[in-house]
Design goal:
With 89 residues, the chain is mainly α. The chain is built from three helices and no strands.
Length: 89
């Protein structure tokens, strides 16, 4: 469960960076696309923060068989967010 929590937290950190970048672009250019990206990243951030809380609070309720899948989902999302961050920079 620890790996899934770490990936969800790392996703949250990357999303905070993306929100900052998108908001900065939106302020400079007044582009509504950047505003939409910032809102989308904000919703993903809320999802990841809720995931961290849920994994931490309900860890005993998850079966050991589910843990590799939960960690894999977090790892794939982390990879996707890193690619998005690289493309944004």
């Amino acid at each position: 469960m620890g790996a899934a929590i770490i990936f969800a937290f790392a996703n949250s950190v990357v999303l905070i960076g993306l929100i900052y970048l998108y908001a900065r672009i939106a302020v400079k250019t007044r582009a509504t696309y950047s505003v939409g990206l910032a809102v989308f990243a904000g919703l993903l951030l809320m999802n990841n923060l809720l995931t961290v809380f849920a994994y931490a609070a309900m860890a005993p309720l998850f079966g050991q068989d589910a843990l590799p899948f939960l960690s894999g989902i977090g790892a794939l999302e982390f990879a996707g967010l890193l690619i998005l961050l690289k493309l944004t920079l």
